[in-house]
Design goal:
The chain has 313 residues and is α/β, with parallel strands linked by helices. 52% of the residues lie in helices and 14% in strands. Strands 1-2-3-4-5-6-7-8 form an eight-stranded parallel barrel, surrounded by six helices. Mean pLDDT is 88; it is low at 305-313.
Length: 313
């Protein structure tokens, strides 16, 4: 079964990046409908409606305007405008929310300076409205550039309302987390959702899980002025985090839990009811296909849910 799941994951991650598959599924009504389990909708109004509902349930939110690498500078303009609008709505509608974004969506594959200038505009809007921004981590082709841009914007431009992501399945992440903890960084720790070779990433789930717990403890121990978002749906990871937080007397202001919209919703509410900060990652937009496929790849149960939905339709 483990080999079957690994093969399914590789296939789904391949399909997440295949343009022919994206073009096919984007026009498939049933696929779009089932994807709504994991995506708030295609418009900002959809995202605002979902955010307010989650806030009423005691849950925090981070909003992600879906999209990945763009090919032309002009394609970045509506992305920047949307994030500025999101920041304004978070403040004006008193939502308990932050924002998450991808650097390739801001033009990193075109020109790094273009990306940095676009990010600066978004961060200025976020700062003016008191909104935290997290730079999502993409594949290992972008790890060094993402961390460099994060540090540049955080330090040179004094944007304190900025965080980024570290992926536990990469071998390099232990050293990255150690350095970031000493810097007092705001970090979301996740397992990783891209297809990576065994030269750079742990191929076995058990090793990724062990490294996740190791990195979580390391960061909370060494990052006295740092903040950790513990992003996982895995009950073993959650239990390990709760136990360590109590054992090490980690202050509430130094961490929160994060989960994806549409996955383990009841558990999210339970964590919030127990007094933990619990933030839900809420994506929206019409570029839902790559995100949706990566969610299917993460857990076989998601794939069976997707397939069974067709038979119920």
């Amino acid at each position: 079964m483990r080999q079957v799941n690994r093969m399914l994951r590789r296939i789904l991650l391949y399909l997440s990046a295949a343009r022919w598959a994206r073009a096919l599924m984007a026009h498939f009504f049933l696929a779009r409908r089932v994807a709504r389990r994991f995506v708030a909708g295609e418009t900002l109004d959809d995202a605002i409606r979902v955010t307010k509902t989650l806030n009423e349930q005691g849950l925090l939110v981070t909003l992600d305007f879906l999209g990945e690498s763009v090919e032309r500078e002009e394609d970045t303009h509506p992305v920047v405008a949307m994030y500025c609008r999101i920041a304004e709505h978070i403040k004006s509608e008193n939502m308990q929310a932050s924002m998450s974004l991808k650097l390739t969506h801001l033009g990193l594959d075109i020109d790094e300076l273009l990306c940095v200038n676009n990010l600066r505009r978004i961060l200025e809007a976020a700062k003016a409205n008191g909104v935290l921004v997290t730079i999502d981590m993409e594949s290992t082709a972008y790890t060094d550039r993402t961390l460099r841009i994060y540090r540049t914007m955080r330090d040179e431009y004094h944007f304190d309302n900025l965080g980024t992501v570290i992926q536990a399945y990469l071998y390099r992440s232990e050293e990255d987390m150690r350095q970031l903890a000493q810097e007092g960084a705001h970090i979301r720790l996740c397992k990783g959702a891209y297809l990576e070779p065994p030269e750079v990433a742990f191929p076995e789930k058990a090793d990724v899980d062990a490294n996740y717990i190791k990195l979580m403890k390391l960061f909370l121990q060494e990052g006295q002025n740092a903040f950790l978002a513990i992003a996982t749906h895995d009950e073993n990871m959650l239990a390990a985090a709760e136990a360590f937080i109590k054992e090490a007397h980690i202050p509430d202001e130094r961490y929160e839990f994060q989960m994806l919209y549409g996955i383990r919703s009841q558990r999210q509410k339970e964590l919030a009811a127990s007094g933990y900060k619990m933030r839900v990652y809420v994506p929206f937009g019409d570029a839902w296909y790559p995100y949706f496929m990566r969610r299917l790849a993460e857990r076989p149960a998601n794939l069976w849910f997707f397939i069974s939905s067709f038979f119920k339709s």
